[in-house]
Amino acid sequence: MFKRLLLTGTAALFLIGAAPITQQGGATQASPQEVLDAAPASAWMTVSPDDLVVMTLADGHQVTYQLAPDFAPVHVANIRQLVRSGYFDGASILRVQDAYVVQWGRPDEDKTEAKGINPTPPAEYEFALPSGFKALPYRDAYAEQAGHVKSWPVASDGHTAWLIHCYGMIGVARDVAPDTGSGTQLYTAIGHAPRHLDRNLAVVGRVINGMEFLTDRPRGTEELGFYKDDSQRIKIVSAKMAADLPPAERPSFQVMDSDSPAFAAWIKARANRSGAFFVRPAGAVDICNAQAPVRTAQ
Q: Which residues belong to any copy of the PPIase cyclophilin-type domain (predicted)?
């Protein structure tokens, strides 16, 4: 995702709540929702407030996103610094390209200094394959394998691995190489997973709440969905690290642990939908339709 010279072209983690369907041919089979409902407390991990950013928009809506320091530590350190220095306070949603991305930050003509960051991070587009990688037992169109590491969607060629551009995943906008982006402009995928972007930009997090307040925006009228000028942009009132908020204002979320038996059962249920509606189960699931569920902390 370039700042301007962009390539043309899910799920954000969904809070659970869909009604289950369980009957098929008289036999009862657990639905994905039923698996979630039955999952023990041990199957859920609380997201650290040090990794949560709460972004408040001018219309009063809030978007909360989780950072991924294990996979892009330099870019994430930059984003934390930018948030804590107030860089995003008064920034804007810059671009909404239909079925592709929403992008935010300060426009190119805004010369506000980004203080205390590494202006030239390394290309954190891929990393050594972690020992904890749990591959899905289904083929992937873009990689040898796709699966999860600590509940993040990850693809691999057997040697290296990378975070995947699923709906709701967040990346760092950049210019043409060798620029890697500093974190001053970010984007999230809002359409069919743009997997062609994998390993071409730094993926640094995911939206876990309020995705609808990014997708439900007028599409930009300029090339690549950019807004023409400030009159079309919606302002970001503030961006705060959850850890810096008073306890009473601090959001708390849990993500399903991809190493838990409950998660394995949920994946199986997602791949083999049952119930009166489904005539034929797929027997497979795409990684971007198997993003770890999120719930508010219990």
A: 62-241
> Domain span at residue 104?
46-110+124-260
Q: Strand pairing of 185-189 and 169-172?
A: antiparallel
Taking the C-alpha atoms of residue 91 and residue 110, their distance in angstroms, rounded to an integer, is 9
Tokens of 189: 């995928």
For 181, what's the count of Cα atoms within 13 Å in the CB-facing half-sphere? 29
Please answer whether residues 227 and 193 qualify as being in contact, where contact means their C-beta atoms are separated by less than 8 angstroms.
no
pLDDT digits (tens, 9 = 90+) for 184-208: 999 999 999 999 999 999 999 999 9
In whole angstroms, give the CA distance from residue 17 to residue 87: 35
16 found inside a domain: no
Q: Please state, as a whole number, how many other Cβ atoms lie within 10 Å of the Cβ of residue 18.
A: 10
* Model confidence pLDDT, tens digit, residues 133-182: 999 999 999 999 999 999 999 999 999 999 999 999 999 999 999 999 99
Residue 23 lies in a domain: no
